[in-house]
């Protein structure tokens, strides 16, 4: 938002210079992007009075002017402006004056008549940037001979601020003035308005057909207005400095009220409204044609304002072309509405930028709606004339204040602990009073307060503490060291220990750690996790970062796509961080879970002359994941089970278990997602939930047997769908009391089994702690194991 310093000083004018004022705006929590001093380039332009005006004898379009400029000599000027006439005060550039683009005024002879200057329009002065043949007409009280720069008060500081989503009060001159008044201990800003008497009885009934949502609507009819009038100079100047000046007087009035008090208003043609106004949800695939947005396809989530035949407008002042006003409009409907933020977000998904929706999204003060309507009515009547009708009002709830009364307890002991500085209790009460908080209860240890209506961002105790400190001034808080009793211990938390070991290991294996936003693209996330609802942000950084992540995978994929587009053909990345899901059983309905995830893509090795490069595969990643888990758990407890995962390849994906407890997943990226992201065909991901990994038992140290090992190999035929892990389980169960190492060393698909069976080569390595095993003992154990496999899995022993 941009505004001029003089406009702000009309509301609050402390006895401080411009630099101090700007610093106070920053101290109040509002960021200033820039401050530009506006000083017009024209020189020598003064106020003059036309004392004689008659037609030029040689031209019907020109007039000869006799002009009084407060000096002995009366100027003779030739002018072609249509509004040039006797006894009006005008802006004149005398000989030697300089206008826009360094245009210098010289003595000229026009059609045989001497011209000693020039009568100016705003365009010639370089103001308002709209060309017009009309010269400037000044009020009768304008002093003849005065410098126009001084008379117009054009020298001003133009301040541009950047409003954060938690400070909706900074989106208006009124909101900033309130802060400056509090900082300088001035009187509270009071709103004064002369309420106009109602001259007509016409009004439209208002109906709300939306359940369980906050809606507040005010509106009135104003008849016999003349919209074909010029915007007054005082309003033009302020809006020009704000970059909001329009040729349309109604747009200027709405923008003026918006910037000054932060209240969006809308105006449509009252003659085009049939019978009543209904507020309801739109129909699916309904259309709205407007001047700003040629064709908007609506749906059941879009709020609309309609009459009995058509949609009039939707939030954001997006009016139907059929009800837009023009210079011939004589009857207007002026309205103000407060809507639930959900409606705003639904429309923002349809359109890109909308200034009015931004105000609704940040939060407006419903207590100012009626005032804004009356304020705009006064401006319209003053500038355009007309007759005022009664105000129609409709509120979704019984209470006219739709903002819930937020009673917040401020613990004074907590205040002192957080700040590290003592502020007198009386001063805290004084600041809260000046900020217009309502103090309900005053106790020794706490205060119970209600924030003002325009501070919708004040939700918790810490918000109040921050509000008090910005008025108290952070510079007044003395530096003091924080004292805390810390107990140091060498014992680490299991998750912390696992993370330290895992991240160090992955770094040694050639992985690079990355850090991405906790916010992700909701479209990409819905493709990866189609059946899981994610948390959407009310005020996202952008549409691509408007959803809380359910997994670390979207951020990893985005990083791989970014690097792949820059010709990186070998990538190994990992990330650790929290992910967020909806869980009604948790505090605030949000479950926060810590994950470790990684991604590999492209070639295994960098390009070299010695060996042929190969692409990364499933087992490269599986080996890394196994190695990470083996840092804290026995390999025998880790199991990978083939499973279909939506974002992964159906034939190359697995869930990971430790002691039959699900702890993660891994696999190749789904071909559909791979094609959509334009990724390499060898992209594989893993993700481990550190919250689910069980605490590992302590490793036991034992002596290595001094007796020799004995190995036996067998080959068995088994059905193709039987996993090797099932065979291992049966063997381990049989050798429960024996130290036996079992390993798969060969897989073969015989041609004579109709592809229904596979042949597995399995090795058994025996080693006893107390003796050398004899041949018959080993044979008996192998025979018993084979018999168990036959009974459980119906295997066939190959000879």
Can you give a write-up of this model?
There is one protein chain. With 799 residues, this protein is an alpha+beta fold. The protein folds into 6 domains: 2-39 and 156-183, Phenylalanyl-tRNA Synthetase, Chain B, domain 1, CATH 3.30.56; 43-152, OB fold (Dihydrolipoamide Acetyltransferase, E2P), CATH 2.40.50; 206-395, 3-Layer(bba) Sandwich (Phenylalanyl-tRNA Synthetase, Chain B, domain 3), CATH 3.50.40; 409-476, Phenylalanyl-tRNA Synthetase, Chain B, domain 1 (2-Layer Sandwich); 494-689, Bira Bifunctional Protein, Domain 2 (BirA Bifunctional Protein, domain 2, 2-Layer Sandwich), CATH 3.30.930; 710-798, 2-Layer Sandwich (Alpha-Beta Plaits), CATH 3.30.70.380. Helix content is 26%, strand content 29%. The chain is built from 20 helices and 40 strands. The strands form 10 sheets. Strands 3, 4, 5, 6, 7, 10 and 11 form a 7-stranded antiparallel beta sheet that branches. A 7-stranded mixed beta sheet has the order 28-31-32-36-35-34-33, with helices on both faces. A hairpin with a 3-residue loop joins strand 26 and strand 27. The termini are far apart. The relative contact order is 0.06. Mean pLDDT is 87; it is low at 398-403. One of its GO terms (cellular component) is phenylalanine-tRNA ligase complex. This is Phenylalanine--tRNA ligase beta subunit. Residues 403-479 form the B5 domain. GO terms for molecular function: ATP binding; magnesium ion binding; phenylalanine-tRNA ligase activity; tRNA binding.
């Amino acid at each position: 938002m941009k505004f001029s310093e003089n406009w702000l000083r009309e509301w609050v004018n402390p006895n401080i210079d411009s630099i101090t004022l700007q610093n106070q705006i920053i101290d109040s929590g509002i960021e200033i992007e820039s401050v530009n001093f506006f000083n017009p380039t024209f020189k020598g332009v003064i106020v003059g009075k036309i004392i004689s005006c008659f037609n030029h004898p040689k031209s019907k379009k020109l007039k000869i002017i006799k002009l009084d400029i407060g000096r002995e000599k009366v100027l003779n000027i030739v002018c072609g402006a249509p509004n040039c006439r006797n006894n009006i005060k005008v802006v004149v550039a005398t000989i030697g004056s300089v206008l826009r683009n360094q245009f210098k005024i010289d003595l000229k002879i026009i059609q045989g008549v001497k011209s000693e200057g020039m009568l100016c329009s705003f365009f010639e002065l370089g103001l308002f940037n709209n060309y017009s043949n009309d010269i400037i007409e000044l009020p009768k009280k304008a002093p003849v001979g005065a410098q126009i720069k001084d008379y117009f008060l054009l020298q001003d500081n133009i301040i541009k601020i950047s409003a954060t989503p938690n400070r909706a009060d900074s989106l208006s001159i009124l909101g900033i003035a309130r802060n400056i008044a509090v900082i300088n201990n001035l009187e509270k800003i009071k709103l004064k308005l002369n309420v106009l008497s109602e001259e007509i009885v016409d009004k439209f009934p208002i109906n709300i057909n939306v359940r369980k949502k906050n809606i507040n609507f005010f509106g009135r009819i104003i008849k016999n207005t003349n919209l074909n009038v010029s915007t007054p100079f005082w309003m033009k100047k302020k809006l020009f400095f704000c970059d909001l000046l329009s040729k349309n007087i109604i747009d200027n009035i709405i923008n003026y009220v918006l910037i000054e008090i932060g209240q969006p208003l809308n105006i449509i043609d009252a003659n085009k409204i049939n019978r009543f106004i209904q507020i309801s949800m739109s129909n699916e695939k309904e259309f709205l044609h407007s001047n700003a947005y040629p064709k908007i396809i609506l749906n059941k989530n879009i709020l609309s304002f309609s009459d009995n035949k058509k949609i009039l407008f939707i939030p954001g002042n997006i009016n139907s072309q059929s009800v837009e006003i023009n210079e011939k409009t004589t009857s207007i409907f002026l309205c103000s509405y407060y809507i639930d933020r959900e409606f705003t977000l639904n429309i923002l998904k349809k359109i890109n930028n909308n200034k009015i929706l931004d105000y609704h999204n940040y939060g407006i003060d419903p207590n100012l709606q009626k005032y804004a309507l009356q304020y705009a009515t006064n401006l319209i009547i003053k500038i355009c004339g007309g007759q005022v009708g009664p105000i129609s009002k409709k509120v979704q709830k019984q209470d006219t204040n739709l903002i819930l009364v937020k009673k917040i307890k401020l613990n004074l002991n907590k205040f002192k602990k957080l700040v590290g500085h003592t502020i007198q209790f009386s001063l805290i009460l004084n600041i809260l009073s000046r900020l217009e908080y309502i103090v309900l209860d005053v106790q020794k240890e706490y205060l119970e307060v209600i924030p003002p209506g325009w501070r919708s961002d004040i939700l918790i105790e810490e918000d109040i503490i921050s509000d008090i400190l910005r008025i108290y001034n952070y510079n007044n808080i003395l530096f003091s060291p924080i004292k805390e009793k810390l107990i140091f211990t060498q014992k680490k938390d299991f998750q912390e220990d696992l993370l330290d070991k895992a991240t160090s290991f992955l770094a040694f294996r050639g992985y690079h750690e990355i850090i991405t936003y906790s916010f992700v693209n909701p479209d990409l996330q819905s493709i990866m996790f189609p059946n899981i609802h994610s948390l959407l942000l009310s005020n996202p950084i952008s549409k691509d970062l408007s959803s809380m992540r359910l997994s670390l995978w979207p951020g990893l994929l985005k990083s791989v796509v970014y690097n792949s587009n820059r010709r990186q053909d070998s990538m190994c990345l990992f990330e650790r961080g929290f992910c967020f899901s909806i869980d009604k059983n948790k505090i605030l309905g949000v479950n926060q879970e810590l994950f470790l995830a990684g991604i590999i893509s492209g070639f295994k090795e960098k390009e070299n002359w010695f060996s042929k490069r190969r692409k990364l595969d499933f087992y490269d990643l599986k080996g890394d994941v196994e190695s990470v888990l083996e840092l804290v758990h026995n390999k025998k407890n880790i199991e990978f089970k083939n499973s279909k995962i939506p974002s992964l390849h159906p034939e190359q994906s697995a869930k990971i278990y430790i002691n039959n407890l699900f702890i993660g997943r891994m696999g190749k990226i789904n071909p559909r997602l791979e094609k959509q992201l334009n990724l390499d065909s060898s992209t594989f991901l893993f993700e481990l939930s550190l919250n689910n990994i069980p605490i590992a038992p302590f490793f036991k140290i034992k002596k290595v047997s001094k007796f020799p090992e004995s190995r036996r190999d067998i080959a068995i035929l088994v059905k193709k769908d039987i996993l090797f892990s099932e065979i291992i389980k049966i063997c381990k169960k049989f050798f429960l009391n024996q130290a036996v190492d079992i390993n798969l060393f060969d897989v073969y698909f015989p041609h004579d089994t109709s592809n229904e069976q596979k042949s597995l080569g399995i090795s058994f390595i025996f080693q006893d702690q107390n003796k050398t095993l004899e041949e018959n003992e080993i044979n008996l154990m192998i025979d018993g194991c084979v018999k168990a496999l036959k009974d459980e899995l119906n295997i066939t022993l190959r000879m």
